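FAQ: What does the model actually see?

It sees only this:
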Amino acid sequence: MEDMLASQGIGFVPFDSAERFCTLIQNEPFGCIVVEESIDRTSGIELLERCRLAGWKIPIVVLATHGNIEFCARAFGLGVTDYMRKPVSKDRFLSRIHDCFAIACKRKQTEEMQNASKRKLDLLTDREREVLNLLVAGNSMKSIASISGTSFQAVARHRQRILEKLGLENDVTLTRWVLQQEYLRSSDRS
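And it is asked to produce this:
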């Protein structure tokens, strides 16, 4: 397997035990994890449980020797990406590894977008957040002024600062942006 990955230019770090992996890898790595059904004295399930307990969402491929149905069900319950019974064809294995890297890249891009959005939202004052929520809910600036007990001009200034701080052009792009953030958050939870 190591030769196969190396021949394809896929970087990897082999570990001879789950304990060694957990000792040396403290933060969620980028890419994917390929785990044997049984690793040294630890079951692959224990490693999967540790990864998920740590909150890692990295794609994981399980290689199984026996094809134990209970193990397979538990693995998928812990969110593994794929479960392959050995021997696995080179093409199928490499295809799945490439798929996992694509998943990891997409997740990283989504996280970067969410972090950038959070930094922008952190620039807003409490009043600007209130105006933002009311705008996105479909309220006119006149009704926002009435709801918040302020003047139309004050709401207009808040709206303008919101658009400037978020780097948006108008209420339509603002609503789309907020909806996109909500979609990214909900897809990240699933």
